[in-house]
Write a structure and sequence with these properties.
4-stranded mixed sheet; 180 residues; 6 strands; 3 helices; alpha+beta
Amino acid sequence: MPTPAYDSLVDYDHLSLYHDKAKQLFATQAALETLDGRVDDIVAEGGEPNTIETVKVNGSALTPDANKAVDVDVPTKVSDLTNDSGFQTASQVSTTVSTAISTALASAVTYKGTVSTYVQLPSSGQSTGDMWNVSADGMNYVWSGSAWDAQAPTVDLSGFVEDADVTIVTNAQINALFTS
């Protein structure tokens, strides 16, 4: 009986590709089996693959719940933060500044009254910021802590025009001044 010719039945190029792919798959399977063995060894020693074992917040360990989860509450806005450093809100700053300004202005000068002449200003018992009006020269004097300091004279505004006496000029009236 004649020997069959198998060469005509097999495509060696494709068979070679099949052989290479089979080697790759079997090598990968072997690597997976090795890896599975290593994971089994880790679990047998009490470890778990891909598991965080400790979570700390500012150095304090948090205890995971039954699902091995840890919930860390992170503030998402400034108002959620605990204010232990004495920082103030914008409203508190505004109130503090307004109060300080009002207090400073209210206490900067304390009007005491009117005397006829400069020599009648008190020579004892006065406090810094005390103010007297001297009618003879129309000046206001404030005690500086060591002397009477002339501030400003009384101003007579009776000769000035008041808002009610002002007439508003229109654009048409202004334009009429410049047309021939």
